[in-house]
Amino acid sequence: MEPPLSRFQLPYFRDPKELPAPLPSVAEIRASTDLIKGHDGWKKVVRIREHFIVKYAASLSPTEGENLLFVEKHLVRISTPKLYAMWKDSNDGTFYIIMEYLPGETLDSLWPKLTEPEKDSILSKLRHALQQMRALPPPFATIFGSVSGGHIMHHLFAMTDYPPNISGPFDNEHDFIMGLINKVRVDAKDNKSKRLEYLAGFYEKQLLPEFTKNEANHASTFTHSDLQRKNILVRFGHDLQYIEISILDWEVAGWYPRYWEYVSAFFGFQWDDWPEELATILDPWPSETAMMKMLYQTLWF
């Protein structure tokens, strides 16, 4: 693989002239009671004043900030939160990401109340966003990894220290699938599980060839990788023509096989009409999804 793209240096602070207001201090962040997500001892997401959303936790990665800057630069017509600042506290190891607050309601909360014309309008906006994302050329001929050429951020590939034979980055789809199979083998060893050993052997002999025989159709594609309704923000104007959407939570975005956007969305399906509607704007990959679901259940349950 060619050398990875250069990462920007931490700490990162946007030019003050581009900020809507002075950035919040750590004390202000810690004192905020406007909790969007999280709880003590884990990742928190809080709103600060009218302009800022802050994520903070020791477990955060700079990849989400890198992704936000990447999307802002390369996908200018897709609405996403702007990154304002990102740093790691040298005292306690807490990682802070300050982003733009965007108004609206999540599609998850709105969906049961929407009319069919409203759903159609939102899906049309989402289709255009996905088309732009999927048309981006990858930085190298073949790469499956982060936007800076680092390891894959999706939780299925996560392990302590992100070993490259499991977490990537990968040069080809064979190695991408083997990353998951290698993780099954690590789980088998850690749990002294013959069942997982046999499953890993089955996946390598049976599933791996089924993926790679269609490798030409599985090109490296820029992928959000968590396209659930909770990560789509909707704002209404005075009629359907003025509905706007924003896409949130780019933490695990990167370069994945072309089927991964649908596969990762499938993992979060709640089995109402959303899967059917999503299939009208994003090509379903039934064979790849069924095979990946087997690996997902082995690794996640």
TrEMBL record:
- Protein name (Swiss-Prot/TrEMBL): Aminoglycoside phosphotransferase domain-containing protein
Superkingdom field: Eukaryota
**Which Gene3D superfamilies does this UniProt record tie to the protein?**
3.90.1200.10
| Domain spans labelled Aminoglycoside phosphotransferase | 43-280
Q: Which organism is it from?
A: Orbilia brochopaga
PANTHER family from the UniProt entry: AMINOGLYCOSIDE PHOSPHOTRANSFERASE DOMAIN-CONTAINING PROTEIN, AMINOGLYCOSIDE PHOSPHOTRANSFERASE-RELATED-RELATED
